[in-house]
Amino acid sequence: MRIDGSLPSYSAFSTQKKGATAGSDFAASLDDFDQSIGEDTSGEEDGGSYDFSHMTPAEMRELSGDLYDSGELDLAQVLQLQLSGRPFGKIGPDGTLLPLSDAESSAYDSTSQDFIGIANNEMDQIESQGRAGDPTSGYQSWQSILSVLNGLQLNGGTEDEA
Question: What CA–CA distance (Å, rounded) separates 105 from 113?
Fold first, then answer.
């Protein structure tokens, strides 16, 4: 969920809205571009502007796309976040996989989840298998995801990285 008052965005891909500069000189019009998108001008230094412990999958899909566009997450990490905990379907009476109905999918998308907890759980599971050092385990990817989420988490999040 988006919380007002966000951290500065230092991405090279960030774009600032262009406003009408009628009646002002060129230097004054550049002042609009000095502040990064989402920069917190309230003077608070409490951390990020998202609550990843209470975010819906629909909100995460939108935000993870933005994080991909800014270069903070790669495509595999975006998919890890978007698909984590998401059911692919349900088991039918004859044991076949049935797709979720629109209503079931919509209900899932509007149910709040703890994405920091999901990342921690994935890392814990990989550690319990003794595969944290295995480059094919996805552990480093989850570590990077957790670092990004903690950096954007409201009130600074928790540093639970191994």
Answer: 14
